[in-house]
Amino acid sequence: MNAISKALADTSRSYAMAKASVGSIDPGTLAAGPSGLVNRPSLGKHRQQYDAFRGWQYVAISAIAKRVSSRQMFVGRVTSRPNLSRSKAQWLKNVLPDRLKAVGESLEPLESHPLLDAMNDPNPIMVRWVLSYVTICSLELTGKAYLWMRDNGKRIEFWPLPSHWVEPDHTGGLFAGFQVRPDGFAEPFPLQGHEVAYVPLPDPKDPILGSLSPLQSQARAVNTDDSIQEAQQRAFENGIFPSHVVIVGKDAAGMRPRLTGPQQTQIIGAIRKRYVGTSKANEPLILDGLIEKVERLSSMPAEMDFIDSGKQTKGRIMQAFGVNPLIVGEVEGANRAQAVVAEQSFCSNVINPLLDLLGQVFTSRIAPAFATGDERLVVWFEPAEARDEELRARRWQAALKGGIVTGNEYRVHLLNLPERSEFAGPVSTGGDYELAESMRSLNEAVGVLKAPLRIDYDPLMPDRIAGRLTATAAGGNGRG
């Protein structure tokens, strides 16, 4: 065999061996790069997006979903002549979103309606809060949410459908039907278009059929954050982390002695006994002829943060969802003014737009299924407002001065005080309730001072005192 034939044979043999080795490797290992980190998904698939509901994504999305789920839902009927009192008309004006201001004078709020009943008890498993929570989470993760309006023959139930279960069917028109295949089902089951309420966050690149979630917009930051955490975890699992190195001194010949195992254990035990524990933190370490030097060897936790890259990815993720760290409880270095501004931004830029989107979808897709005859129903949600106690107090004071609320309402809702009969109606002191309260308290104090001073008098007390003084002067003990 000549040299060329031998080289070709060696190459073929090496290729066969390599192919056999690669074929025996776990697919998860093949997906890993040289560092051992698995290549991250593009978050373009809905199942991957749901799997990303963790870390900072969970923190941000959960805060949004909880706030939206806590808002009250209202249903109104459009009528030419609504019968509303002055106070109820003012209340309606305050709670209506901007899109309904124009029809507010023709809107009659309904205290009870089958749609409200159905949403408050959507299905045998869930309550409205849970339904709203999973709907908003799906919307923020995948850019879309599906609500199945299932008619069980007695009433309409609402069931949330995960986005990766649903495939729109445009055969009979846009979103004319949907194919739903839950996990574990071999075949999908069809639903008609009117049975499903589709809630999208539109993608400008594909505004009709597409959707784009905040999660997708920051896929790189999400993947980077996952990589940082996995790298830190692998470093802790696979690394060796002695905290310090103890350098033994040299002998008379200038040679560093080689310690045996028991000697090393004895030195380590002595150092631990003398310096380990929080009560001995920052104590000085004495170096003598045995120990020449002690140096820190391992990196501190703060030094393993990839030069603050974790903070940068966190900031990108939280901003994509519109959630300020103050909203989720990060109050270090913050003040009240910053907290109020963060709350206002969160309500106006995140929560209220989502509430408006849900209200429009419910009005156009869900409400017609509950309307009777020519009835036109409108759905909206209570707007979210920043909790500013000073502003709340000023509003109540203005309402009190204007005669809109009574003194007792002011006491109960703002001051958390019990009702009093003299404040059952409008305050008569020019509407200044605080002055009235102060004057009442002052009058009560003055009345106490003016009351006759009562002293319990014992007519035998002078004789007893005189007897004790006499006994003391005579050298007695004062008894008897």
Summarize this entry quickly.
The protein is α+β, with helices and mostly antiparallel strands and 480 residues long. Helices cover 44% and strands 14% of the residues.
Question: Secondary structure elements and their pairing?
Answer:
Blueprint: H1 3-23, H2 27-30, H3 46-51, H4 55-69, E1 73-78, H5 86-95, E2 107-110, H6 114-120, H7 128-142, E3 144-151, E4 156-161, E5 166-169, E6 177-180, E7 189-192, E8 196-200, E9 202-203, E10 206-211, H8 214-217, H9 219-238, E11 244-248, H10 261-275, E12 291-296, H11 309-321, H12 336-366, E13 377-381, H13 389-401, H14 407-413, H15 433-450, H16 461-473
Antiparallel strand pairs: 1-2, 1-13, 3-4, 3-8, 5-6, 6-7, 9-10, 11-12
Helix pairs in contact: 4-7, 4-11, 9-11
How many beta strands in the DSSP annotation?
13
Distance between the termini: 138 Å
State the strand order across the main sheet.
2-1-13
Helix content: 40-55%
Poorly predicted sequence stretches spanning 5 or more consecutive residues: 24-39
Structural class: alpha+beta
Mean pLDDT: 79
Q: Secondary-structure element sequence?
A: HHHHEHEHHEEEEEEEEHHEHEHHEHHHH
Number of domains: 4
Number of helices: 16
Q: Summarize the biggest pleated sheet.
A: 3 strands, antiparallel
**Regarding quaternary structure, how should these chains be classified?**
single chain
Which strand-content bin applies to the residues? Answer: 5-15%
Label the overall shape: flat
How large, in whole angstroms, is the Cα Rg? 38 Å
